[in-house]
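Same chain as my last thread, 218 residues:
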Amino acid sequence: MGVWITSAVIIAFWAGVYLSIKAGVRGVRDPLFRRQAIARGCVGLLLMAPATWLLLLEPDGPKKEAAPRQHSESTTSSDAARQGKPFPLTPAQFAANFNAAAKGSGLRAEVVKSSDATARMFMSKNCAGVFTLQDGQIAGAMVLGAPDGSVQASADVVLCVLYSMAGVRPEMPKSRRADIASKLTERLPERSSAVEDGVEFSLSKSEAGVLFTMTPAS
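reply #2:
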């Protein structure tokens, strides 16, 4: 699944979560809007069901027949030149770095789906990660956080962003990670980016949640 399709799937999933939670709360608080709340809840569930299947349970499809070797090597070289070198770590190593930084916080990263091209990671009930891979190593990382309005959920999203930085740069001090996050949040909800320690970090916000990305700086 391409990275943009994957992004749409994740956004659809969290949009479904948001609509379902909002509908439930409004239906309980205001019986006059119960029908409308039920309708919104159904829409949310319709968004969540296929998105969840694609995000976590999608089976590997049949592999496409390999192209002629000469053409394949040319394409791979072109892609590598365009994308640059990946981070020198696998999704499992990223998860280990994340968990080391998150020790004691109650958050834990776990790879739930992996293929030659992508990996998907659970971080908390409010955060998920999707990674594009190049030769088994991380070429790009995308973390989507969708707080439910509670203080704890919002804190978890912020921590997921900080621990994800440690995922690709475990040697980076906490204060440095906090400074980068602070810089990125200054322009929210507009997208902002910063290049630090050979990594391009970007952050944006929409109704679906917070999107945080990390790619090797060219």
